[in-house]
Design brief:
Length: 457
C-alpha cells in the first residue's frame, strides 16, 4: 500500500474515489438522515402528490417537524399514496382518526410539507396504518382559483384592486391616518375586554377552554360523517320548530299564568312541608317500630306467597259473583229502607208489647186469662203441641187429640155439667166432720143452688 501511494497515478485515483464518495454522501444526505431517524412508517392517500419529494418533504404536527416523507406512489386513478416516517411520540398524540393536509411552507408556495392533525379518540395511531382519502386535503393555490374564474370576474377583480389602490392613494390615506390616530383610545377598552375574557385564573381557564374545545372537536371528528348528521338533524329540528311556532307561541303566552299557579302551589306545598316537618319528630319512634314489624313480616310474606298465588285464580273466579252482588246490595238497601220504616216501628211497638203483656180474653174469650206473658203462653202451647205430636203410627207422626163431646162442651151457661157433677160428688162423699171443698172461690153448695137459680154469674 505504501508503494502504491508513491506512484502518482495511483494517488490520483484514490483522490478521485474519495471525492466521488464525498459527493455521493453529500447528495444522499437526506436519505441517510431518514434511514438513521427513529420512528414508524404510516401512509396517507391524497387526491394528488402535489410536489411532495421523498426524503426531503417534512411531516409536521402543529407545525413542529416529527418526520419525513419516504415515498410517493402515483395510482392509476390519479390519486397518490404517500409513505411517511413519523416519530413514535407523535403517533401517540394523533388519535385513532387523524387528518393529513399538504401545505406550502410560504404563502407563495415553495417547499410543501404534510401537516398531521389529531382526531378520533386518544388512542395511538397504529404503525403501518393508512389515513383514508376522506381525511386528507390538498392545497388550493391562487392561480388555480383565478383559472376557474371567468374572464369577466377576473377583470372585475382587477378593477377592484385598482379602485382600492386609488382609494388608498386619495382620501383613503388620510382616513387610515385618522383611524390609526384614534385606535389607541379604542385599544385600551378592548384590552380590558380581553383581560376580562381571560377569566379569574388565566393560566388555567384559557388552557381548560382550549382543552375543552379540543375534546369537543375530537368527539365530533371521531366518526366520519357524524358532524354532518348532527347539522342535518339540527336543520330538521329548526324546520319543525318553524312549523310549530304558533303552538310554541301559545305555550309561551300561557307560561306566565302557569308559573303563577306553580308559585301558588309551591306556597301551599311549603305549608304542607312545614306541617310534615313538625309531625316528623313524633313519627320517628313509629318508623323504628315499623322497621321491626317489617323485619318480622318478611318471613310471613315469603310463606304467604304460595297462598297468594293460589288465591289469584280464586279471586278471578269470584269476580262475576262480586259483580252480581252489586245489584243485590242495591235491592237489599231498598228492602232495609222499607223495613226500617213503619214495619220495624210496628214490630218494636204494639207487637213486642203484646208478646210481653199477660193475656186477658175479651168477648167470647172473656173467661180465659193468664198472668204469664204472652210469649210464655205461646211457648207452652208449642211445647204441648210437640208432646201431642210425639205419637207414632204406621203413617208417621200424629197429633194425640181425640175430638168428642163432654160435660163442658155446652158454652154460655153460668157453670157447666162437669162442675155440677164434681160439686155434687164431693158433697155426697164427704165425711160428717169435713167441709165441702170449693171448686172455685165462690162455688159452694149454696153457691151452686144460687147458680142454678140464676143468681151466680
Amino acid at each position: 500500500m505504501h508503494k502504491l501511494l508513491k506512484r502518482p497515478e495511483a494517488a490520483g485515483i484514490i483522490l478521485i474515489v474519495v471525492i466521488l464518495l464525498a459527493f455521493g454522501l453529500l447528495f444522499s444526505k437526506n436519505k441517510i438522515q431518514v434511514l438513521l431517524m427513529s420512528g414508524s412508517t404510516i401512509k396517507a392517500q391524497f387526491a394528488q402528490d402535489y410536489k411532495l419529494r421523498p426524503d426531503i418533504s417534512a411531516v409536521k404536527v402543529g407545525y413542529v417537524a416529527v418526520g419525513r416523507v419516504t415515498g410517493v406512489t402515483r395510482n392509476t386513478d390519479g390519486t397518490a399514496e404517500v409513505s411517511m416516517k413519523v416519530s413514535d411520540s407523535a403517533l401517540k398524540v394523533l388519535g385513532s382518526a387523524p387528518t393529513a393536509t399538504i401545505m406550502p411552507t410560504t404563502v407563495l408556495g415553495g417547499i410543501y410539507f404534510v401537516d398531521l392533525e389529531p382526531g378520533g379518540d386518544r388512542s395511538a395511531f397504529p404503525s403501518g396504518s393508512q389515513i383514508p382519502l376522506a381525511h386528507t386535503q390538498v392545497p388550493v393555490e391562487l392561480d388555480k382559483i383565478a383559472a376557474i374564474l371567468p374572464t369577466s370576474a377576473r377583470a372585475g377583480l382587477q378593477g377592484t384592486i385598482s379602485g382600492l389602490n386609488s382609494a388608498l392613494g386619495a382620501s383613503g390615506t388620510a382616513a387610515l391616518q385618522r383611524l390609526m390616530a384614534q385606535a389607541p383610545a379604542a385599544l385600551k377598552p378592548a384590552a380590558e375586554v380581553l383581560n376580562a375574557a381571560l377569566g379569574t385564573n388565566p393560566e388555567q381557564d384559557v388552557p381548560n377552554v382550549v382543552s375543552g374545545l379540543e375534546h369537543t372537536a375530537r368527539a365530533l371528528t371521531a366518526r366520519h360523517g357524524q358532524l354532518e348528521s348532527i347539522l342535518t338533524n339540527m336543520s330538521t329540528l329548526s324546520a319543525t320548530l318553524a312549523q310549530t311556532s304558533p303552538s310554541i307561541g301559545a305555550a309561551l303566552q300561557s307560561a306566565p299564568a302557569a308559573l303563577s299557579n306553580s308559585v301558588a302551589g309551591l306556597s301551599s306545598l311549603n305549608s304542607t312541608l312545614a306541617t310534615l316537618r313538625s309531625s316528623a319528630a313524633s313519627l320517628r319512634p313509629v318508623a323504628s317500630q315499623l322497621d321491626t314489624f317489617l323485619t318480622a313480616l318478611d318471613p310471613v310474606a315469603v310463606q304467604a306467597q304460595p297462598v297468594m298465588k293460589q288465591l289469584q285464580p280464586a279471586i278471578h273466579d269470584a269476580l262475576p259473583s262480586l259483580r252480581g252482588l252489586v245489584p243485590v246490595s242495591t235491592g237489599a238497601t231498598q228492602v232495609f229502607s222499607n223495613v226500617a220504616g213503619p214495619v220495624l216501628q210496628r214490630v218494636t211497638g204494639p207487637i213486642l208489647q203484646w208478646f210481653n203483656n199477660p193475656f186477658n180474653g175479651t168477648g167470647s174469650y172473656s173467661q180465659s186469662d193468664s198472668s204469664l206473658p204472652m210469649y210464655k203462653n205461646i211457648a207452652a202451647a208449642v211445647g204441648n203441641m210437640a208432646r201431642a205430636s210425639g205419637r207414632m203410627d204406621a203413617n208417621g207422626n200424629s197429633l194425640a187429640i181425640q175430638p168428642g163431646i163432654g160435660a163442658g162442651s155446652i158454652a154460655g151457661l153460668p157453670l157447666n155439667f162437669g162442675q155440677i157433677f164434681q160439686t155434687l160428688t164431693a158433697w155426697i162423699e164427704r165425711p160428717a166432720s169435713a167441709t165441702l171443698p170449693s171448686i172455685t172461690p165462690s162455688l159452694t153448695v149454696n153457691g151452686l143452688l144460687d147458680a142454678l137459680k140464676g143468681g151466680h154469674r
